[in-house]
Amino acid sequence: MYYEDHNPPHFHASYGEYKVIVEIENGLIVKGDFPMKQQKLVLAWCEIHRQELLDNWLMSKEYGKLTRIDPLR
Q1: Which of these, 35, 39, 30, 38, lies nearest to 11 by C-alpha position?
Q2: Which of 23, 24, 11 is nearest to 50 (CA)?
Q3: CA distance 3 to 56
């Protein structure tokens, strides 16, 4: 996430040379492309951590400290 990023709430992810932007609320990739396996992992992570992601989005708008969100294990 970037502090001065635009709505709707979203996050950026990268895997090697691949980059995506994922809308948090609906868990959809709105820009970019990932290999299918990594895409499924990122979208599953988004679903599991949706509330934490939304909380971080709100904090980013207030320039507050973002909390670390655990990766998939």
Answers
A1: 30
A2: 24
A3: 10
The yes-or-no verdict on residue 4 having pLDDT over 90 is no
- Supply 59's token pair: 């904090």
* Residue length of the chain: 73
Structural domain boundaries in the chain? 10-61
Torsion (CA) 41, 72, 60, 16 in degrees, nearest 10: -50
DSSP 15: E
- pTM attached to this predicted model: 0.91
Instruction: With CA atoms as reference, report the closest residue to 43 among 19, 26, 27.
Output: 27
Report the relative pairing of strands 28-32 and 18-23 from DSSP bridges.
antiparallel
Token pair, residue 54, equals 């939304």
